[in-house]
Structures are given as C-alpha cells and as structure tokens.
Specification:
By secondary structure, the protein is of the alpha+beta class. Helices cover 25% and strands 42% of the residues.
Length: 158
C-alpha cells in the first residue's frame, strides 16, 4: 500500500468508527475522535460560503465536546432520537505526513422514539486530520449542512 492509500484507509476507517459511535449512542466516546485543541462547528452551506464564522454548534476544545455530551445526558430535555449516518468516501484535498485535509459527503436519517424516520441532514464534512503515530484524530470538523433550515432540536452531534 502506498502512503496515500494508507492515509486514505486510516481516515475512512476512523470516519466509519465515528459514525458508529454516534449511531450506537456511545456519545461519551465521541470526543475521543478529536484532538485536545480541536474545532467542531455545524453551519449551513450559505453561511459557510459567505464566510460567516458563527455556527449552530461551536466547540473549540475536546473539553467543550465532553461538556456538550454531559449536558445531553444530564441537563437538556429533548425527545429521544437516534441517527443513522451514510457517508461518502473521503476525498483527500491536501496531505503531508502530519496533517490531512478531506471532504466527505454525508446523509443522516433521524429515527424518533415512535419509530418514525426522516431524512434529517445532508451535507459535507470539511476536516483536518492529525496523524499521530497510530492515532487518526480530527483537529477540525466543519459540518456544512446543505439546507439553510436546521432543526432547532438538533441534539446529537453530526
């Protein structure tokens, strides 16, 4: 396997594990996919295109991600729901031995407690990955939703 193939495989594998973590409701494990000094933001395609920095969700550390999950479990009141992610293949945009930029399309279905299922979000992940030894970690994940209409009940991470 060439270095680029190895990098691709590591990222694709981590993407799959990331989605399973959320879809299997193992949310306490989710922050471990990120570096300590990470950036996680959910925004719309229009806001991203227009250079607007604010996001619907914004966290700039793994600690903030951990706090978000604690709030979901202990403080926030929302209707129980689950996600099912369908991911495209990651496109490697830029890479070197330590840092890789990728773009990956996604679709997320939301399943409510009553069993109803709906297409919840489509879009793309713009990611910066750090390859640290055997670890493949997200230094940055910008979740760009295609629609400008984002459900105000967005609880789980995308």
């Amino acid at each position: 396997m060439t270095d680029l193939q190895t990098i691709y495989f590591r990222i694709a594998r981590t993407q799959a594990d990331y989605a399973r973590c959320i879809d299997d409701d193992r949310l306490e494990e989710w922050p471990a996919f990120f570096t300590a000094d990470c950036l996680y933001k959910v925004t719309t395609a229009d806001n991203h295109r227009d250079g607007m920095e604010a996001g619907v969700i914004f966290a700039n550390s793994r600690g903030m991600l951990t706090d978000r999950i604690s709030a979901l479990r202990e403080a926030n009141i929302y209707e129980r729901q689950a996600y099912r992610h369908l991911l495209g293949q990651p496109s490697i945009l830029v890479h070197d031995n330590q840092c890789v930029r990728t773009e990956t399309s996604f679709m997320v279905a939301r399943i409510m407690r009553d069993g109803s299922t709906m297409l919840y979000a489509t879009g793309r992940y713009l990611d910066v990955w750090r390859l640290e030894g055997d670890a493949t970690l997200l230094a940055e994940r910008i979740v760009i939703c295609d629609s400008s209409r984002i459900d105000t009940l967005m609880a789980l991470p995308l």
